[in-house]
């Protein structure tokens, strides 16, 4: 069961989603350092979501039908905004700032990221709470999954750093593809 849980967590966090796409875009457009700042914010937001889900799982389970529609609307609007931002980015010189590469944007993206919210809301009732509900196990789970998420984000930073010049050379196509993936993520919220 533990291996299934770990593999599930890795697959969910490493597959393309809004955060991974923005990390790749940030590396492509302004470099690794700003992408790492965004990544640190994203992992903090992910940890906040995991802690909230662990502590408030019973509350969320009772109110999910009411809360989920708001998460879907906010998440859809934010993902479409990010798609627009990514599509319209040009290859900046190194002195330009990136509109979505800050620590705060990383935290915000995770908190409204439907993929992350749904993952954290379903993780505990599916894999942890049926077997153990101790504070220690919940804490270990939060730390473990946060570390798995961080490793997944670092994979995307590394991918962007390795292929940065290629991505910059074909930035219009790359930006278009990333914007399409973000729009796809926005539509998948509703299915």
Automatic annotation (TrEMBL):
What the entry lists under Pfam families is as follows: LysE
Entry's transmembrane regions: 6-25, 37-61, 67-87, 107-129, 135-161, 173-190
Q: Where in the cell is it found?
A: Cell membrane
Q: Which GO terms describe its molecular function?
A: amino acid transmembrane transporter activity
Quick one: signal sequence residues? none
Organism domain of life: Bacteria
Major localisation: membrane
From the Swiss-Prot or TrEMBL record, give the protein name. Answer: LysE family translocator
């Amino acid at each position: 069961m533990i291996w299934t849980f770990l593999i599930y967590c890795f697959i969910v966090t490493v597959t393309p989603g809004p955060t991974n796409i923005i990390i790749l875009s940030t590396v492509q457009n302004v470099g690794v350092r700003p992408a790492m700042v965004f990544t640190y914010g994203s992992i903090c937001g992910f940890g906040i979501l995991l802690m909230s889900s662990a502590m408030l799982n019973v509350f969320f389970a009772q109110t999910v039908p009411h809360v989920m529609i708001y998460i879907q609307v906010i998440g859809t609007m934010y993902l479409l905004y990010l798609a627009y931002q990514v599509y319209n980015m040009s290859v900046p010189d190194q002195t330009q700032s990136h509109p979505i590469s800050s620590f705060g944007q990383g935290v915000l993206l995770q908190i409204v990221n439907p993929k992350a919210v749904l993952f954290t809301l379903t993780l505990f009732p599916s894999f942890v709470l049926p077997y153990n509900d101790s504070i220690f196990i919940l804490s270990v789970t939060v730390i473990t999954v946060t570390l798995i998420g961080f490793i997944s984000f670092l994979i995307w930073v590394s991918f962007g750093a390795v292929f940065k010049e290629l991505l910059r050379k074909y930035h219009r196509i790359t930006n278009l593809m990333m914007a399409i993936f973000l729009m796809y993520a926005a539509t998948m919220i509703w299915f």
